[in-house]
Amino acid sequence: MPAYYDEKTKSWYCKFNYIDWNGKRRQKMKRGFSKKIDAKDWEHRFIVALKYDSKTTIGTITETFLQEIAPRRRCTTIRNYNNAIKNYINPYFRDLPLGELSEKHIIEWQNRLLSSNMADTYMHEIDTIFRTVFKFGARRCKLSANPFDGIEKIGRTRAQTMQFWTLDQYRQFIALIDDPVKHMAFQLLYYTGIRLGELMPLTAADADTTTGMLHITKSLQRINRQDVITPPKTGKGTRDIIMPRFLCNELIEYKKRLYGCDDDTRLFTMSKCALYYPMKKYSQLAGVPRIRLHDLRHSHVALLIEYNVSPLVIADRLGHESIEVTLGTYGHLYPNKQQEIADILDNL
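^ Prophage phiRv2 integrase, sequence as received from the core. Prediction below:
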């Protein structure tokens, strides 16, 4: 189990062959260790992790878990998992074999979290992540018993409040926005229902005013004080949205204001925060309820429902994975439509 020194980076690395779970011979390399012993220890733990059983430690399980989900989750999600595991799970359970985790261990751990000043919503998130990691490890280690069964979750979920503006309320608000950049941003959010993260990386080519198509192919996330472009939130998030003609005309005039505008020019170079203050200020001046920026997406859906657009079309426009997501989120906006349906059937 040799380790090697890289003169260029002044650090140690390990490089070795192993047999994967398919029986294929593969090679692994890991760089960036400050000490030789750390490189050798990492190689040892990697090899041990290939042989899962009840004695596999929770530290090994969490490391494998993070490696495997990294390509499948958004950067912000991975960051949340990393923080929870590094700061609140591994410090207590890193060296504990997964098969030895007991109800007593979990309850004592939960009580430590409860005695801290942690927010209830974050506490609930950490508890959920630990349960997810255990299920992942239990499948690998072929464990049937789950010590989390019967133990209540701690904390509470984030309240999912939904507010929206009617078309008249939105018009009262937007009439006061005289800044052309912010005006265009609010128009796109309200009349297309895109997410704020989908708005920020839009380029001139993405907003095709000739065909009337808004191409949603990416999302902007703020990670470690840097803008990071990622795929949309869901698999169906990559989509084309047909814009109304008046919105295309506004975009044509808006693009003329952008210096040297070409296909790659970003439509909005401001930060997300630049829209928070005017949202608060002008909703108050307009005398309309104060709502969140994300509620403009809900307002768009409420507008479509008011004009009898089907849930299937709305799901496609919003980029939801399935119509069940749409109905689960906006089903409460449909009750008034039920009587309309009954009246239509009565008049057949």
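Residues 197 and 209 are 21 Å apart (CA to CA).
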